[in-house]
Design goal:
Elements (H helix, E strand, L loop, with lengths): L1 E2 L2 E2 L9 H8 L5 H8 L3 H6 L11 E5 L8 E6 L5 E5 L6 E7 L2 E6 L10 E3 L6 E3 L7 E4 L14 E7 L3 E8 L4 E6 L5 E5 L2 E6 L2 E5 L6 E6 L9 E5 L2 E8 L12 E8 L6 E5 L5 E6 L2 E6 L10 E7 L9 E7 L5 E7 L3 E5 L2 E5 L5 H9 L4
Parallel strand pairs: 3-28, 22-24
Antiparallel strand pairs: 1-2, 3-4, 4-5, 6-7, 7-8, 8-9, 10-11, 11-12, 12-13, 14-15, 15-16, 16-17, 18-19, 19-20, 20-21, 22-23, 24-25, 25-26, 27-28
Pfam families: Beta-prop_KIB1-4
InterPro entries: F-box-like_dom_sf, F-box_BR-signaling, KIB1-4_b-propeller
Protein name: F-box domain-containing protein
Amino acid sequence: MTRNKKTVPKPWGDLHPDLLRHIYTNLYDPVDFIRFRAVCKGWHVGTPLSERPPQFPLLLEREPDPLYSPEFKLYSLPTGRTYKLQLPEVQNKMFFEQSQGHLVTFGTGDDSSPRNPTILNPFTRAELPLPFGNCNFFTPIYIGTSDPTPNTDGVVMHVHCPEKGQHLGFWSKDENDWVLRKRDLGSARVFHKGRLFICRNRRTWAIDLPTGDELLNLWLPDQIGDFYCLVEAAGVLLGIVQHNFCTDRMPLENCWFEVYRLEEEENPPHWTKLSDIGDLMIFLNSNNGFCVSANGFDGIRGNCIYFTKWNGKDDHNSRTLIGRYELGPWGRADLKLWATLGIQVGPGLCLMYNSNYQQREITTLFCISNY
């Protein structure tokens, strides 16, 4: 609109809903999407999280100096941008993996000292104390994206207390309370479609958390041992098998993976081996993983598994190996060696501790195509 050759600005909040949707469905950088929703109340309400576009994981790096620094850097892999975060809540504290984009923070000290763990949202800085102050081990369990739980800020935790043993803890914002269940867990677990799936001793269990009832109990295929981890992908459950890892950093070109899909609707339920996963990408860390579609990301290769592996050394030669394995009859692994003390991969965030690499190396590993 013009008046006397002068532009009359229109309030941002009055943008047509169709135009608003056209903009936010093309914001593939998670930081851009967050900032867009923060412009005004109208944009926040008109940009539902349920319609967020496909988003590539972020890399979160903690500044190595001083020790337990509150300063962090966020790297956007598709755009190559770097963002800085100040998290005073993590000053002089460590953080452990992450859950649904939240950091699990805890105090330093020996096993006899209270850890006082919390769950911290690094963007809003909202913090939730965990009722496991005297526990010496706690790790979040990934909640699949097909669940309604992430929309209500649900959290599923595996905790171990010296006097009480292993427990599962489930919390939802709606109830604002924890439900604890005593349970021994296997190394592969995921919360999928309202149930906790566990693989242990070549068996798969599905457990209803509120009641503790076992809803599924089946054997894994004869030709495999246990799954390395369980991953939800496009609404189905995948089991990942890893082979031929060694403690030495080379040669790892011989490592390979197998992917199985749970056919839960068939009678009887069973696992089926997959030859490929289409345009999906699976990101693996220690006993957990998540899946992202490569569709919509230019220069990103699908049908691949991205993984990390420590070289088994506890000295200044300690390294983390990062590789990409392409599924198929001629599957192969492309490897990259980074000088880092440890890498954690999580849905929406890739957590990196005291790393020493350059931004160029990050982009080369995750964003290069067709090599």
